[in-house]
User: Fold these one by one.
Assistant:
Number 1:
Amino acid sequence: MSDIAEVYRHRIERVRAAMSERGVDAVMLSAGHDLPYLTGYEAMPLERLTMLVVDQHRVPTLLIPRLEVARVEPLDGVFELQPWDETDDPVALAASLAREARTVAIGDQMWARFLVELLGKLPGVEYRRAVEVVGPLRMRKDDAEIAALAAAGAAVDRIAAQLQAGEIPLVGRTEAEVSADLSARIVAEGHDRVNFAIVAAGENAASPHHHAGARVIGEDEIVLCDFGGTMKGYCSDTTRCVVTGAIPAEIAEAYEILHTAQRAAVAAATVGTACSQVDRAARQVIEDAGYGEYFVHRTGHGIGLEEHEDPYIVDGNDLALEHGHAFSVEPGIYVPGRWGMRLEDIVVATADGPVSMNNSDHHLISV
Amino acid sequence: MSDIAEVYRHRIERVRAAMSERGVDAVMLSAGHDLPYLTGYEAMPLERLTMLVVDQHRVPTLLIPRLEVARVEPLDGVFELQPWDETDDPVALAASLAREARTVAIGDQMWARFLVELLGKLPGVEYRRAVEVVGPLRMRKDDAEIAALAAAGAAVDRIAAQLQAGEIPLVGRTEAEVSADLSARIVAEGHDRVNFAIVAAGENAASPHHHAGARVIGEDEIVLCDFGGTMKGYCSDTTRCVVTGAIPAEIAEAYEILHTAQRAAVAAATVGTACSQVDRAARQVIEDAGYGEYFVHRTGHGIGLEEHEDPYIVDGNDLALEHGHAFSVEPGIYVPGRWGMRLEDIVVATADGPVSMNNSDHHLISV
């Protein structure tokens, strides 16, 4: 068995152990990232169903449209292919593979249409989320995964440095033009694909998920850039803000608070600390400074094969961080109609303390 | 009420009529294309739930993460926004909106995680696919939608013409480089985004969904290019093959059969004809010529807001074509390990007969 097959086989064994513990008889995975985590194969989200069925009894079966078979890298002992033809009913085939299961766990991002059809074909089954059995494994990144996150992080850091050095023109360009520029750099720095490149200037920066548009960037404005991609399967994600010219006193002051909050949350992200406490560490600084109402989102999200995955750094999440948990720490301050700012690194909790995957300058720089 | 609000309001009324007919009490839509069809708003597929709940009693409610609110274009009388906060349970809010429903129809592309959670919060409910009530409406394109498909089709036709005129270098470049070139042209010709740009040379063309890779295109090879994007919400999709140099007799002969099959299926695509019969028209020609085993996929898929939607042109689909149905007609012949070919146009069934949205040269051209 090849080394890579051994990695996947081991992961499947750990999923099976988690299934036993939690009383899950079968796991069904389709579009989404659990499938590549266990097989190396990423299904296109399509109306033609691709589905891995894992139980305790046999080699996992990968149901796949026959015309996708050529795209699969076979891995002996990891899974067996079961191609289906254009006039077959793939959901019936999947139901048949799980016909003895009383509890079935479903991949998060499978299209609901397939689950609706399964409900009719496997009545009386209890459905759960596969994240129960796959999520805890995916959360704990191994050394190779941490190295992949670090490499992707270093790539976006190089772009952040270009931004901060004034090498990416801003004034006179539209947000959309700068976003396209960032996207090209994400690929040029070694990513396989761009996941997003938010560029928000001035008052637009007050919308955390602003869609880069036709607004032209002017002088003396804050410009928020939040960008990332996927490199060898693992995601990058960083946010830096710059100002085109003089930094207004109000913005400089708020940024100091933001920077302090971000540092506090990174420092709090030690093994054993609850995710909610990491969120609290950032939020407390911002609340104490009187900006609490302007920090309108959670402090962070897990990251790995997926841009957003467990663990979420949010109030109410009592999960304790473990060695290998990877997540963003990205507090923000958003004053509607006026300006916004966010500072974001990817951080990995380790036995030696929190390690940042992003190390470009954390200050608000005038370009 | 604005004109555009009137379009959406009218669509929602037709969905409600279909719900009454089919005994559906509530429709829940999230990621996917039913939501923009009814509201103009496209939800990012995210772990933060966006969901439109439509029933017979009140203005549809759009549950939305508070930090996405700024991205929504409000449409009075079409829907009401209900923002939720980071520590709310949005699935519980959705369940509460549908608490009196006994039959709930779920959007096809909603992430299954949300349906798994709904199952626990709305027990005893019968779940169906929303395509039952929204699909028939979306299938029948109105004049504005047909015009949008025609404009997107004309844009990819211009690229096909560039390919056929030899203006897109092939020999010596990798498939991936040509794919990137096609992608840039898709945007340059007016699309908002690229959906795919398959480039498959020689034996790679035998894999219908080949992923453009590092293979360098050589002389005297067939090169299959299948590409499309989204322009003002509506999709394009066309396939043309060219040969880099001399066309081998075997390939020329097979292409004649393919061309005849494609023409036969387009001609068969009249109002009232079953989708299965359109598939049969293409397949019969290819089978009669002895290539039946090499035509491994359905003849086509519907297209509109989505690249693949109803109606599917496939054996077993007895749906009769109606005025405004839009779909691909794309037979192929794939000889494993040797070569492949496909010829694809988007066609709209109309009262005046089938109308092709793609009109670039249908012949196999040597470049």
Number 2:
Amino acid sequence: MPELFHIVPEAQHNALVEAAYCHRGYHADEAAEGARFCAEATRHGIRTHNGLKALHLDHLFGTGVKGWTPGAQIEEIPTRFAAVKVWNANRKLGQSIAYRAMDTAIKLADQYGVGTVSVDNATHYLWGGGYVIDAARRGYIAYTNCTAAIAEVVPFGGKAPTLGTNPHSWGFPTIPAIGFPIVIDWATSVVAMGRVQQLKREGKPLPPFAAVDKDGKPTTDPAAVTALLPFGAHKGYGLSLIDELVAGFIGGSLPTLRNQWNNRPEEKHGCSFFFQVIHPDALSGGAFALGRNQAQNVKAVIDDVLGHGNEACILPGQIEAEWAKKTAAAGGLLFSAAEIDAFNELATECGHPQWNRSALKTITL
Amino acid sequence: MPELFHIVPEAQHNALVEAAYCHRGYHADEAAEGARFCAEATRHGIRTHNGLKALHLDHLFGTGVKGWTPGAQIEEIPTRFAAVKVWNANRKLGQSIAYRAMDTAIKLADQYGVGTVSVDNATHYLWGGGYVIDAARRGYIAYTNCTAAIAEVVPFGGKAPTLGTNPHSWGFPTIPAIGFPIVIDWATSVVAMGRVQQLKREGKPLPPFAAVDKDGKPTTDPAAVTALLPFGAHKGYGLSLIDELVAGFIGGSLPTLRNQWNNRPEEKHGCSFFFQVIHPDALSGGAFALGRNQAQNVKAVIDDVLGHGNEACILPGQIEAEWAKKTAAAGGLLFSAAEIDAFNELATECGHPQWNRSALKTITL
């Protein structure tokens, strides 16, 4: 169904989000990184992780509960290994950590072919896809995972939520091959809790085996849901465990205590982030069929996958790339009327000028 | 249902598998690596990738069709990057390539913290889990993916099989924490084609959305199946694409031409392998709660996930570890009567002494 969007110039959006972060105590550089990220999410149509969500998360887990630390300095932990970095982020704003970590992993990959950055005492970086898209646009193969803010997901065969929605994000530098980066990016739960709430409001059922009730039994009734299930049964469970294991090796907290800063203070409560970048030249054997170069070979493989009657398939990242094109054509970030109103509540909170909704250009998409 | 197994001493098993490989022209070192791998698969209860399967695959794609090259030398492709290696495997036996690549990735990780080995012109390495279990037992975080031998899987939203079953395998060095390595290892299809054939023999239906018929429509009738579906809809599709993309960057062949050595000879036809190892010290921030060391922290995280009512859950790799224990207790590899008979057919093929089934000890498990 076509939807009406208001067009907000990116500078105007970023000024408000920066003001809101600064009002919460974040430093100018953090506020700028936070706003830049929210613009990226909106540009790619990721409405679940826009500026409204970012500042709501700060309220829930961050400065609202003295969980995150504005102005925190990232501390580099000494390591004997040349191609990796390990950071204690001291609960700095997630977007600031993530942009800096991905930049650092890119520098390591430039030198060593592959580089990783592991982050202890992290906060929430919102949408891992944003960081890998960014790295992929710059020409790198990028991966990130993190442990989610709270335990909402039941392990395969279990009853109690002891895992986060623990996402994985992979980005591939496929612009030279197909015009946009392929981005494989999702949570390891079938659906997010936000989706459950949306279906409850709309009076619609959940897909089967997406969530459980208070007895740990699968339910499709959104009103009965107490926890989520991993996608693909034991396979999604395994993928979710990967994030917890990597975090556990880094120094991560117990999943059921995550972001519960006052519960068992002798335990840690932060999230952990893991970033990895590979330089595409560091994979290349240089022997592509028919004299193709690397990008042409990647294109030939993709064309083969989407040929033979599969022309209707789309590629992961394609919807996001198409939304970014529409955003560029519109000349600003696209928000619904309800989103504009919510941004204006944030403006009131931080004493920033309101967005005049009736003065904004609109577009129906 | 309890099953009767015949106990074959490992040396006796390896002697036959080595003889079979040598009879097909493989060199002694390759035959030994091939046999070692088949013993590992059987030890961990991976009956779908034992010596019988290994030699059957060689018949289908390898020396049986002049696809693989006994005695091939692995060629190292020069790279400017210190933490990676790129190999042209010249269609050497897959198990030989994989063991050597994982050893090399471990050496890189020892020095740089992380290391990758990318392999062009690879063959078939059977079961990626075997290599990551091995690395995890030696104390490393290991990952591998590969492009599968043939295109059997339909991309999400498509009709034609243009993807392999493209597996992913992750191994974690969790022996100090819980006594066995956690191994997350599966194909990106819901089921394997072998499972479809088994259900057809047994007259049982497939799970829903596991396979399609000749019109590309989902079917649960194993007799109607022409191709498989990825698990988790777009998520499994994305995971399958990762293998094709990594392979495409390495120099990989078009998926629908893979292992079809005589179809469009101007194209390549080999598989590609990717290996990555991370030294666990290269992740560690060193700041574990309650004075725990790294292994104790990993154990605490796992205990939290499997606590709170989730005590009945199992961990990925646990079934394989339990089978390895049963194998060790039995004092030999465990095979059914039908498997023993099939090994004796191989013995006949290569002029090796038969296994006297009635002289073998048995155990019911």
